[in-house]
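## retry 2 of 3
previous attempt timed out at serialization; input unchanged, resubmitting
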Amino acid sequence: MKLSLNHVLVASVAGSLVLGGVLVLASPDDGRPARPALGPSGRAMAAVGAGRPAALPDLTALIGEREAHLRAHPGDGHSWAVLGSAYVARGERTADFRYYPKADKALRTSLKAMPGRNPEALTGLAALANVRHDYRAARGFAERAAHQAPKRWTVYPALIDAYCGLGDIKAADKALDKLKALGPRSAVKVRAGWFYRDRGWREDADSALSSAVALAGTPAERAAASYRVGEMAWERGEPKVALRHYAAALDADPDHHASLAGRGRALAALGRTSEALHAYRSALTRQPMPQYALELGELYQSLKLLPAARAQYDVLRTRVREESAGGVNDQRVLGLYEADHGDAEVAVQRLTAEYAVHRNPETADALGWALHRAGEGERGLKLVTKAIKKGPRSALFAYHRGEIERQLGRYGAARRHLGEALLINP
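## retry succeeded, writing output
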């Protein structure tokens, strides 16, 4: 069976990468789906060959199968690329940063084994850089992969993520056009929907993401798309609708841990705090993201449970330190924490350095807010205004702008933008 699977990998599959935290392999150039093998790793290969998310248990089985194969065949460059990309997907799905150095080693081993043309490994390295929030490196790897294989659709999601992380919307738009021309409809709809959301085109985003749910061919794919629809509902102030979509995601794939944090967010908005706390704690246990620790800490703080809040902020700081050992850049979430709960001057230092590298709307807003908290409202207002012009239609961005304007004595503008924040998400 290992020989059969390896034959599928080398002879039938054009490349591999991680798409939104999901391992995918390109289908054969003639459009035929990759030949499935039996067992969990075979199911993973069947899913990824068609550009679909792989279930976490099947992904784990695929990692084990490739590791065993490579112990016997260490010169197999294709398998090193598959293994490295699987490590990235596994690391992101579980927030286990220990997989990232392993992924880096596997993907670079693939490049050494196949130094001439290896878009599979390059795309995997781009995906790894994206999940580490190193968008400059991601852009470099993805552009090299696209140059080597311009017709390989699986290159372009990683390229879109990199360009968005750098705030280069025009380049991301061009990469999306390439994906639309080359990729399968389900993958295109998910990627296009979130890109439209980032541009503030909510109707287009809702339409694309709803289509992605309908087109989903596997439970894992349906979970990923349902989660995105839930996020859109949450962002427009519909927590009950969001809850339904998060529940659909978890019904399809119980390992979709991001939907647990989404449930926590929506339940808190509905005043169901006991359930919200349980959902957040479950999300943190299964996928210990610093962002979840920040949100849970702020929920505790809103309930006047200050010792519990401080404990979560300690978890956040510890987690950021640990993840940095795996090469993960969490400066934005750490800066947001410092701005609201720690040292605003430290927040400005962190976020200024981050914005110098990654000039996306989210970082611009975070730095603008930190500057305001540090007493530099005029400078902060310019950055928050820039974030609103270039980013998604965000209640948080509008709130930050209105609050800064209120502190500066611009009460008319403050009323307008605080009202807009409530209109976007009550």
